Amino acid sequence: MKTRTLLYALLVLTFSCNDDKKAEPTTPKYVEELHSYAKPNTSAIKHLDLDIDVNFDKQIIDGVATYTIENNNATEIVLDAKFLNIASVEADGQNTEFELGAFDEQLGQALTIKISEDTKTVAVHYQTTSKTEALQWLNPQQTADKTHPFLFTQGQAILTRSWIPIQDSPQIRITYNATVKVPSELMAVMSAQNPKEKTADGVYKFTMNQPISPYLMALAVGDLEYKAVSHRTGVYAEKSMIDKAHSEFSDMEKMVVAAENLYGAYDWEQFDVIVLPPSFPFGGMENPRLTFATPTVIAGDKSLTSLIAHELAHSWSGNLVTNATWNDFWLNEGFTVYFEVRIMEALYGKDRANMIALIGRQDLEEEVEGFKDEPEMTKLKLDLSNKNPDDGMNSIAYDKGYLFLRTLEETVGREKFDAFLKGYFKTNAFSTVTTEGFIDYLNTNLLEPNNVDFNVNEWVYEPGVPENQAKIVSDKFDNAERVLNEFIANKVVDVSKTKDWTTQEWVYFIRNFPETITTEDLERFDKAFNFTNSSNTHIAMVWYEQAINHDYHGNNVDQNIEDFLIRVGRRWYVSTLFKAYKRNDKVDEALAIYKKSRPNYHSVTANTIDEMLGYNE
Asked: Which residue in 89, 453, 484, 520 has a CA-CA distance of 20 to 30 Å to 503?
């Protein structure tokens, strides 16, 4: 892959008008970026005015993106673009020359625009195409209500460039206004100040006053309704989902209060959640002011709402203080998992929080094992040269990052650690941080003042998990394991021993089946608990994985697995099951299902499974 990097490492010499004075070097504002063509140290975008039309008939977005720029006497500005048709470009209202560079499979193209040293605005007239990866256009049958089409975007990590020409690096922070035209029967919402009702003409105006990174630009269009949870929280969903979503997420305001009590004021005014169709590739996406969420978290008992706590936590770690590059991704996710667990502890107690953390610990063990041939991928600070940033979006960043922070907390004490984190978020608000910048801050503000010797470099720069990791325990999980072993040994299932179990206990129970478990044991469990038909998607997913692992075919489970994979596009669930097929030499079976399910997947999910199964259209 032809990866072009930003040449930021060179210091820029600034000369005074006085010839007697020595030239003094100044440090570039932006650091080296592997995944963007932009050159923001010479010219950077600061504000976007977006005016677009969403055309469902043609399945394109077309319009104009007008940028206010920071111009350091530059003669060009470089944006990122991928699968876009660029019609024309203006600089300060006058047509100007532009060039699209060579196409790169991951990075797209450099859009180089000629400007003068005093240019203040650049406008790009463009259209998306059928190859645009950030957009998923859904027909009515792919939605909950099955009456109107739906559109949503997914920008993280480097897909915003495929629906807006932009400097697509997390270091770039912009404010934006947008005018979005959609069919009058639909509503548009964005990662911005949002409407609560449909307009008569299908024209929507948006404002985002806080500067955000481009991967957090987001748009959804559908037959949506809004229902408030509190004065600053609420949910958007299709009509058939709105009451379920509102009930499931009724603790949102309590979560915001708990988060503020931990690490300071919520700086985004509004925290809403939109429940998207099931093809959405992630559990949630922390788009500022409007978290995008999968319907798979609606279990009916709030048992999966730690996901909402996770996306809320991103309002501090990720959105407020952002990883400078995708090599530093653990700064977004490790902090957020830590914060999520603390929110869940504040609301639901230490038992539930530790169960969530232990499931993550189990995920981490599997991830480390999966990278046994690429141990460098188990470092927190990554080197994603010649790789897609998505390659780093796994349990290492999330759960090793969490374990590092929890180990720090237990080493220095919670009171000191909380004061440190609160200061970290406040000091670095609305800015980006590198791993090295965080380590400097950690040493200066926590470790050195408290005379603490901690193996930071081993945690961050070495593969695997250090020996001094925090030990997480759960009496409830110990009990679940005892019950499992008893059921298997006695060949009898006593359902009274699982009364009032949480989702986390069931997940732990199923995931810890011994390799020697028999088909008879699986049939016994399925008959007692009907796992095959579970309405809880997390329980269903781990059960289906075990069914694939152990050749269990009872209770119509094979058809249920196929239906699940066709209906649900959440990448974690989908990749877990297809990985199980591959691990158990059932690739042909997997491909037969994948050919049916792939049209329902967002490109983020499809690209992962394509590579996993060696699938070519």
From this structure: 520
Q: What are phi and psi of 237, to 5 degrees?
A: -165, 170
Beta bridge partners of 233: 271
Place of tokens 């111009």: 71
Please state the pTM of the whole predicted model: 0.93
**Token pair for residue 290?**
């409007």
| 8 A C-beta contact, residue 590 and residue 548 | no
**Active site residue: 398, 424, 581, 594, which one?**
398
How far apart (Å, rounded) are the C-alpha atoms in residues 479 and 465?
A: 26
Measured in degrees and rounded to the nearest 5, phi and psi for residue 126 equal -150, 170
Catalytic residue (choose from 33, 238, 248, 311): 311
Question: For residue 571, with 0-12 CB atoms within 10 Å meaning exposed, 13-18 middle and 19 or more buried, which class applies?
Answer: buried
Q: What does the alpha-carbon distance between residue 385 and residue 374 come to, in Å, rounded to a whole number? A: 14
Strands 174-181 and 219-222: unpaired
SS3 of residue 553 by DSSP: coil
Closest listed residue to residue 285, CA positions, set 368, 387, 213, 385: 213
76 is catalytic: no
Mean pLDDT across the stretch 58-75?
A: 97
> Do you know the residue count of the chain?
617
**Is the pLDDT reported for residue 27 higher than 90?**
no
Q: Is 615 one of the annotated active-site residues of the chain?
A: no
Question: CA geometry: angle at 570 spanning 566 and 576, to 5°?
Answer: 85
SS (H, E, C) 448-517: CCCCCCCCHHHHHHCCCCCCCCCCCCCHHHHHHHHHHHHHHHHCCCCHHHHCCCCHHHHHHHHHCCCCCC
317-335: per-residue pLDDT in tens? Answer: 999 999 999 999 999 999 9
Count CB-CB contacts under 10 A for residue 199.
13
d(CA 168, CA 247): 37
